[in-house]
Amino acid sequence: MTPMTRTVRPMLNQKRREQFLDLMADTGWDLLLLYGHSWRKDFFRSLVNFNFEGPHAAAALTRSGKISIMLSHPWDHELLAGALDVEAGWAADFGVGLDRLLSGFSHAKTAIAGMELMEARWPDFIRRRIGGEPISATGAIEKLRRFKTPEEIEIVRQAARLADLGYEHFVNTVQIGMAEYELVAEVEAFLKTHGAEDNFMLIGSGGTEVFGMKPPTERRFQKGDNVTTELSPQVNGYYAQICRTLVLGEPSPNQQRSFAIFYQAQQAAQKFLKPGVNISDLARVQNDVFRREGFGEYTGPKYTRVRGHNLGLHVDENPYVLEDVDCVVDKGMVLIAHPNTYLPLAGYMVFGDTLSVTSDGCVSMNQTAQKIFVKEV
Amino acid sequence: MKRGLIAWNKDEISPAAFRRRLEKVRRVLSEQQLSALVVYSELWRSNQARFFSNYMPYFNRALLVIPLEQPPILLCGLTPRVYGWIRSVTIIEDIRPAADFATPLLQLASERNWTRIGIVDDQQLPYDIFKAIRSGTLQVVDVDSEAVFTPGEDETELAMRSKTAAMARAIITEELPTGVGNVDHRFAGVLEKRFRRAGVEDLITLLTNGRTPPAPPAGTVLEENYSVSLAVEYRGHWIRLSRPHATAEVLVQYGKQFEEFLSGMTAPSAAAAVASQHFIEGAATRPVPAVPRGEFCIEDLSGSYPYEAGSGSIFALHLEFNAGGKRLFYGDTCRHSESGLKPL
């Protein structure tokens, strides 16, 4: 079996470097630090796409375009130094490493993307080193990253294709009597075999007693269960996502009626999404379907989290698709619209595709059938 | 990512183990005249809150609050729809939603008339949470994690880590021969299936054909004498393991040399001294005469992170050997005990 994706060598994202340099010129920042840790590698990888073992990494970009990197594990250092022509060092004590990274930058106006994620002591080190207060660049960098480059969209497309294959494997593998965690083991193995760097996956099974998805438990699948999942394979750093609901056995009328509402809501979002619309309205068109059907109360935080979110180097990027989030959509955004929620008809259901915003609308990056899946038992 | 089975098997970790750990916390609280202790948790840094409560988030962040006299409270970034599940796999009953974490913590303190609380290694909190808590009027004291979080001295913790290490060694012994000629992604998939079906929560697989340190799979075919380096999390207990593909006889030899090297490191402090010199120099590796190829790497597994370069009471030692011009990696998770340094 040949993996469908190939991991690329560590690489600089030149387009992002140009954007970051423009931002630095506009804001007057002398130095931009992009910090990542094991859970949130995304700020670092937006400039230097290197999957470090960590737990920490930081890239410093100067106004002249020079990049220096600090890592926290010797193996990371050796791997990166051998692959990229940049100045790279490492330190077990990452505070010491940051101090070294910033030597020569006293009085530099320094901005940090991911500053909020840093251990609290490090911004203090940085403050002492640069002789001034560092500025958070998190919001500004997130805004730039929200719009993907053509190269990034192509990688997300590969991840979406892998999500499709992963879901096909999920459908083929699930069976009555199997435990949730056993199914997840099979799907994780499949995704890794086919080149996924990582995967974020939640699962739920049962009926009206199920209010959401979570990590897999020892519960064994039963006839009539809704089996819900959110698969999010990561390819070369970038996540795509798919949400689908499967019924073990013939769906009941309530399961069919319930899923029809989710289908209409997702379709409403997919038809609505285009440059110029607001994210708040993308949430509203989904929620309106539930309201029309008399299930408006199930669109709030008691029963659901978000109606979708952006995707990229982090699996849960902002903006979150909610009626109180004000953000204008534009070409290049990649997001999932998923009206996942609980309904009393048949319990928690999920349905969503990764959508790429084009110049006049959006296209689904998934190829999996948009339907409720049924597994004969 | 943590997405395997997250469970609490009370035959493995008894409620009494958590009671003992919390009693120690409360002794420290009493000595330092603190009303409660706050422990940070997130998807990756879940060791400490797991130690006290068995809470391991599959996403997001949380603060575990251990009051001097009442049961623990979880200020949780996850949706209330999963609180029932959290209660089923932890000792926690009182779970409260938290968005920015500081506000609910300050509210809780006000509700319970707390004026002085401790935070475990407060300088290691994420900057946004630290700043928000410190901006309030509550007096906050830094509590050194070593005063309360002592995984290297806890029998249950060591038993669980040993169980995890034994599981990893058994699976790797069986699967190593199947890797040669396989694409590394495929071998990673084989391991993923074996470990997750055994109930593992998280697995990180690094592989090398002997020309670089172990690295994430990259679509290359594994050759003779490849090495695998794993990070395995079972019931929240992390271990590291590195093994080269070699004959059983060669592996036994490497194992003996590993133990000899380990016995030469008389204490974690000695290991730390060597390691810190090694680290500060910034070199990827440092010659050590006792090891055939002369290179090694030490990781701390007793802190808040699953593993990081450095030394601690539970640590991983990876030695590097040379065979036919290839770099081979052999490593295990070890502990410091009264009788010296021993593999788990």
Total separate domains of chain B: 2
Low-confidence spans of chain B: pLDDT under 50, at least 5 residues? 268-293
Largest sheet of chain A: 6 strands, mixed
What fraction, in percent, of the residue positions of chain A are helical? 25-40%
Rg value of chain B:
21 Å
CATH fold title of the largest domain in chain B: Creatine Amidinohydrolase
- First and last CA, distance of chain B: 24 Å
Helix count from the secondary structure assignment of chain A: 10
Secondary-structure topology with pairs:
The complex is a heterodimer of chains A (377) and B (344).
Chain A: E1 11-12, H1 14-27, E2 31-37, H2 42-45, E3 48-49, E4 56-62, E5 67-71, H3 74-81, E6 87-90, H4 94-101, E7 110-113, H5 121-130, E8 135-136, H6 138-145, H7 150-173, H8 180-193, E9 198-206, E10 226-235, E11 238-239, E12 242-248, H9 253-272, H10 279-292, E13 308-310, E14 317-320, E15 334-337, E16 341-343, E17 347-349, E18 353-357, E19 362-364, E20 373-375
Parallel strand pairs in A: 2-7, 5-6, 7-8, 12-20
Antiparallel strand pairs in A: 1-3, 2-4, 4-5, 9-10, 10-11, 10-12, 13-14, 13-15, 15-18, 16-17, 18-19
Helix pairs in contact in A: 1-6, 4-5, 7-8, 9-10
Chain B: H1 15-31, E1 36-42, H2 47-53, E2 61-67, E3 73-76, H3 83-89, E4 94-97, H4 102-111, E5 116-120, H5 127-134, E6 139-143, H6 145-148, H7 155-179, H8 184-197, E7 202-208, E8 227-234, E9 237-244, H9 248-264, H10 268-280, E10 295-300, E11 308-309, E12 314-323, E13 326-337, E14 340-343
Parallel strand pairs in B: 1-5, 3-4, 5-6
Antiparallel strand pairs in B: 1-2, 2-3, 7-8, 8-9, 10-11, 10-12, 12-13, 13-14
